[in-house]
Design a protein that fits this description.
single chain; about 550 residues; 5 domains; six-stranded mixed sheet; 19 helices
């Protein structure tokens, strides 16, 4: 790498410094100028000496990027350096738009396969199907490539062509397909529909540009179908644009209500965001579904609905991200995404997790000591608490699948069976009418017999651990007989598990099969029927007394 290119990398680091110096100037921290100057001089001289005298050849650009990453890792998880090569991915996260073919791809063993072509986008128009194996892109083999590598090649300027060679189930020879890229705009509302004659459902996947208008349009359409009550699903929604969270909240709360406040070091950037428009509907009973994957903007919306007693929050505690990021331009088309403020919802609480590292395995907020939790109140006087995330009004345990149902999914066996099923059955009944009946399930179990499928249950893992410890402590010979008897009791049997947990397996298999014929909308619609949180929301919305009781409950549960 030339010195000029290396210097560009260094400048990307140095561009961050004026932001710090400006804040120091306005705060009159004059003494810090010397610290900044001294440490920058140390960094540059160290970098120079390292490149001149290190025993092996160095990669200066990589060293600088590691230096940037190390510096930012000492702050919070959301302050990131975005090099020019990643700008398109960042643009997609904020706008939902990119130039490409419109298909989800994934790795299956050493192969790259089409997991789902998006409805009405180039991949589907060109005839690509879920399950197609991508062998080549523009004449270059995909062997050994990651999904990120392949995705970057499939993306490109709209109206340009990309040529892919695929292997399709049932075909003896590979197929060449030419796809014309388009501007891809992923719909932020992948599904909306009626759950019964009165209750509508809207699924919002992300807070990208104009998502609040997408939700508005979905609600208005459902109202024409008789909707009088609404379930808004924010589960797994990682958030996005603050302005969209404000505008979405405004659909349900009165004009002039405070939605969220941002407060940071740069006082001029502190701001109160209020509902500026007449609400779409401020009376309709509302249930909002959340879980540990609901973050950022999702937490603003669910927090506003809770703080203003506008609806009932159902599910699990949310992720706990109460920080606001701003992007700042750096040299050579790179950017800095920097945390500039915390946000505070109407009750005055910040939902940011107190400890970035104190999280559960699924990323949800870990245990927060009571001494660090502050009590706040909703508009009606209900107690709510800070410390991390939005705690639902109606708490439900996250669903835990059986080992057999879970591992069938992890090993893509639902996916593979659906691929073969689709090519043997060109149509199925409507989503509402289609079921995995005994005949299809028997076919699936027979098909599994030829697959290398097995798994280890948690009980078996614990038994193996017990044996290891007992062996180390030289106690195993004493308990071997009892151990063997107990192991035989807990040892799994695939055939037995496929029967005992057949309802779970059938449900997941149905979702995968339906997606081949009715795409993403069909999958979501199918999975709603057995969704315990959706069923709970329906029960509460259908019971006006219970709905009102929850919104007036003044208990002190954290």
């Amino acid at each position: 790498m030339t010195f000029q290119k290396t210097w560009r990398k260094i400048r990307s680091v140095l561009v961050i410094v004026p932001l710090i110096m400006l804040s120091l100037l306005t705060s009159s921290y004059v003494d810090s100028y010397f610290e900044i100057s001294k440490n920058l001089d140390i960094f540059i001289t160290l970098f120079k000496e390292l490149n001149l005298y290190y025993v092996d050849e160095t990669q200066p650009g990589q060293l600088v990027e590691k230096g940037i990453e190390g510096m930012l890792e000492s702050l919070d998880p959301y302050t990131n350096y975005i090099p020019e090569t990643d700008i398109e991915d960042y643009r997609f996260m904020t706008t939902g738009q990119y130039g490409g073919i419109g298909a989800l791809i994934r790795k299956k063993d050493s192969l790259v396969v089409v997991a789902e072509p998006y409805e009405n986008f180039p991949a589907m128009k060109a005839g690509l199907l879920a399950g197609d194996i991508i062998l080549e892109v523009n004449g270059k083999s995909t062997e050994g490539k990651s999904t990120e590598d392949i995705s970057s090649v499939l993306k490109g300027q709209p109206q340009t062509e990309v040529k892919v060679k695929i292997q399709r189930y049932g075909e003896t020879k590979p197929m060449d397909v030419t796809i014309t890229r388009e501007e891809i705009k992923i719909n932020s509302v992948p599904y909306s529909g009626m759950l019964n004659e009165e209750v509508g459902y809207v699924n919002l996947s992300s807070f990208t540009d104009n998502c609040s208008q997408d939700v508005r349009a979905a609600i208005e359409e459902l109202k024409t179908k008789g909707m009088k009550k609404l379930v808004l699903d924010l589960r797994g929604n990682p958030g996005g644009l603050l302005k969209e969270a404000v505008e979405l909240s405004n659909l349900f709360v009165s004009k002039g209500e405070l939605i969220v406040s941002t407060k940071g070091k740069v006082e001029e950037w502190n701001k109160d965001y209020k509902a500026m428009q007449t609400p779409l509907d401020k009376e309709m009973p509302l249930a909002v579904l959340v879980n540990s994957g609901s973050a950022s903007a999702s937490e603003i919306v669910s927090g506003v609905i809770q703080d203003l007693d506008r609806g009932v929050i159902i599910g699990q505690r949310t992720f706990g991200k109460g920080l606001v990021q701003t992007t700042r331009p750096l040299s050579y088309n790179s950017q800095l995404k920097v945390t500039t403020a915390k946000y505070y919802i109407p009750s005055g609480r910040c939902i940011q997790a107190l400890d970035y590292s104190n999280r559960n395995e699924d990323g949800s907020v870990g245990k927060v000591p009571d001494s660090l939790i502050t009590r706040y109140e909703t508009k009606a006087g209900r107690p709510v608490f800070d410390g991390g995330g939005i705690n639902p009004d109606v708490k439900m345990e996250p669903r835990k699948l059986s080992e057999v149902a879970f591992n069938l999914g992890m090993k893509m066996l639902y996916f593979d069976f659906a691929t073969e099923f689709y090519h043997r059955n060109k149509e199925i009944p409507s989503v509402n009418d289609f079921r995995v009946n005994d005949e299809i399930y028997a076919e699936f179990k027979t098909w599994l017999e030829s697959k290398d499928f097995d798994y280890t249950t948690d009980s078996e893992k614990m038994m193996e651990k017990l044996k290891e410890v007992a062996d180390e402590e030289k106690y195993f010979s004493r308990i071997e007989t009892e151990y063997t008897a107990l192991l035989n009791q807990v040892k799994h049997n695939k055939e037995h598990d496929l029967e005992e947990f057949s309802s779970e397996v059938k449900e997941l298999l149905r979702g995968e099969l339906v997606s081949r014929y009715y795409h993403q909308k069909g999958r979501i619609q199918a999975m709603l029927e057995d969704d315990t949180e959706v069923l709970k929301a329906l029960k509460i919305l259908d019971d006006t007394a219970e709905y009102n009781r929850i919104l007036s409950d003044k208990g002190l549960e954290k």
